[in-house]
Design goal:
It is built from 10 helices and 10 strands. It is an alpha/beta fold. It has 2 domains: 3-91 and 168-247, P-loop containing nucleotide triphosphate hydrolases (Rossmann fold); 100-167, no CATH class. The strands form 2 sheets. It has a 6-stranded mixed beta sheet, with helices on both faces. A 4-stranded antiparallel beta sheet has the order 2-1-4-5, covered by helices on one side.
């Protein structure tokens, strides 16, 4: 990202922010005083070793996991104590690493339910929204197929489609690239790139670094429940502390 692009990005308002977030499980601090933010229309990648606190951070931001300390703001307003469905109604959507469609419903019905329940659409509006998202995510040909009959790539697409049907301002993507072939991953990268081009604010957890680096504006590395480094993706990945935490050894 150029200096001009960085300046333009920093001028945009913060869409979603966590300040001093703490999440404890007994004596374990899954989040240990974490500060995190994403600007409007920014794409932020989150990386780190297993157990770093990445998914816990998503749960805290989306309202799945109530925090033990800290504050969360969305569009400048406090949402720390709002339930996940309330945050969804405000415009925060998330996906899961393992897709969670309603297997007995068709692909279209899955998106329709998300538009009605999460997007607060009328019946007529929900049909239009679902049809638009089917086209946007490349699922139109599978509209009448039961979700149980779809392959992994299409289930990943459906996971994104259901999140989009809630009409979010911010979408949290949790390792949606996992398990895909390289060719399938490229298709998913194209979809996320299209979302970025549309102005969507995105936070993306992913272990597949080359996929992240094709899309993101900024990279955050977590380790042991803390933010270890953040900034320009290439600079973050060159950081010796990041490489040590991520690769498990000091770089040569």
């Amino acid at each position: 990202m150029s200096k001009v692009q960085k300046k333009a990005q920093s001028a945009k308002p913060i869409a979603l922010e966590g300040r001093g977030l703490v999440k404890r499980y007994g004596s374990l601090r899954a989040l240990d005083n974490v500060d995190f933010h994403v600007h409007a229309q920014e794409v932020v990648g989150v990386v780190g070793p297993n157990g770093a606190g990445k998914t816990t951070l998503f749960g805290a931001l989306a309202g799945t996991y109530p925090v033990n300390g800290g504050q969360i703001h969305f569009d400048g307003a406090p949402i720390t104590y709002l339930a996940s469905q309330q945050r969804c109604a405000l415009g925060i959507a998330r996906t899961y690493q393992v897709p969670r469609p309603f297997l007995g419903m068709t692909v279209f019905e899955n998106i329709l339910v998300a538009a009605r329940a999460g997007g607060d659409c009328s019946k007529t509006e929900a049909v239009d929204v679902a049809a638009s998202i089917l086209d946007q995510t490349g699922l139109m040909a599978l509209a009448d197929i039961p979700a149980a009959a779809t392959g992994l790539l299409d289930r990943k697409r459906l996971e994104v489609a259901r999140a989009l049907a809630t009409r979010p301002k911010v979408i949290l993507l949790d390792e949606i690239g996992g398990g895909l072939t390289e060719a399938e991953l490229l298709q998913l990268i194209d979809l996320i790139s299209d979302l970025k081009a549309s102005g969507m604010t995105i936070v993306w957890i992913e272990h597949i670094l080359h996929a992240l680096l094709k899309v993101i504006d900024r990279l955050v590395c977590m380790a042991e429940g803390r933010v270890l480094a953040e900034g320009d993706p290439k600079d973050v990945m060159k950081d010796p502390a990041v490489r040590s935490a991520y690769l498990g050894s000091e770089p040569e």
